[in-house]
Myo-inositol-1-phosphate synthase (Streptomyces albireticuli), 355 residues
Amino acid sequence: MTAIRVALAGAGNCAWSFTQFAALAQADPDTRLPGLMCHTVGGYRLADVRVVAAFDVDAAKVGRPLAEAFTAPAIAATAFTELGGDRNAPVLPAPVLDGLTGPLGSVVQAATAARDATPEDVAKALVEHDVDVLVIALPTGASRAVRMFADAALAAGAAVVNCTPEELARDEDVSRRFADAGVVLLGDDLRSHLGATCLHTALIELMLSRGLELTSTYQLNVGGNTDFLNLADAGRSASKFTSKANALRAAGMTDVDGVAGPTGFIGHLGDSKVCFANVRAKSVLGSEVRIDIKLTVEDSPNAAGVIANAVRAAKTAADRGLSGKVDAPSPLLFKSPPRGLPESEARAAFLGFAS
Ligand SMILES: NC(=O)c1ccc[n+]([C@@H]2O[C@H](COP(=O)([O-])OP(=O)(O)OC[C@H]3O[C@@H](n4cnc5c(N)ncnc54)[C@H](O)[C@@H]3O)[C@@H](O)[C@H]2O)c1
């Protein structure tokens, strides 16, 4: 199989964990790595992924080789392994736009080169690095920057994986422009590998499968990385609340008092994320069933597990001549795909596509 050439828009925590996951696979392509759901997707192994470039705005990252950029102070995700061949991929400047709006602006200083960068520079770099797939892992709420990267990928003919909750794949105009240009667009908002959404929707689906009637639910999430710092600003987190509600609705939640979202930044948690979820339902003779769970995960590796599937799905879709939004793999990979499905159907659709 040829390599999949990946660029990262945002060399942050998710990007760092994903690059390490690819490095582990490259070092030993046939080992079964924990958390790697599919050894091949469309014939591609994770070992076939190469990170060839990244874009960022952080003065501690721009202009450095990738391996050095991932030691910047804003990185909270654990270093599990050294990078191999991808370690020298360049971190290029990108226009800042709304990337550092809110609390992020107090911990990340924009590089001068980023203040001068243009969208045309980004598109040109994608062509020069012969990028197959652009992974957009920018801060939530940076809708202008996310759109700018989508336009640059469109101009360069690179498929897009939108890890953020900003609307791309579910925006009909955007997905039509990608379809017309023959470019693949997957999104929106990663559904973490085994995270809060996956577990919460599984509980809801279990209750509904036994004929129970949901009465209320909530999902509270706290963490200590820059994603949570950014999401602590109500102006930045609105799209995340909407996206999580979309995922619960796809699981069958209707007309129920439900709340799900990021609910706090606790710095000492670092890259740990803690989720408290509660689901209440009415069962036989009106009796109450109530489930309370606490889930603790490392946030960024949990994203890397999904990105590993999403980049291979994007390249597979492009190889098959698909373009615009692609329905089959998206409901398993994203919280807010253009068309959501319950988990069991989403998994079957993804595995059918991947085989
Ligand atoms: N961690 C997960 O499991 C998970 C799950 C679902 C969705 N997501 C989403 O993935 C996205 C990335 O999360 P993260 O934890 O990696 O965030 P992060 O804060 O660690 O990384 C964001 C990166 O984007 C950079 N950036 C800001 N503006 C930019 C611009 N204009 N151009 C280029 N780079 C810019 C920042 O400097 C930073 O390096 C977020 O939107 C998050 O909500 C993450």
In short: The domain at 196-299 is CATH 3.30.360.10 (Dihydrodipicolinate Reductase; domain 2). The radius of gyration is 19 Å. Residues 9-15, 55-58, 94-97, 99-100, 108, 137-140, 142, 145, 163-164, 189-190, 192, 225-227, 299-300, 302-303 surround nicotinamide-adenine-dinucleotide (CB under 6 Å). The chain has a mean pLDDT of 96.
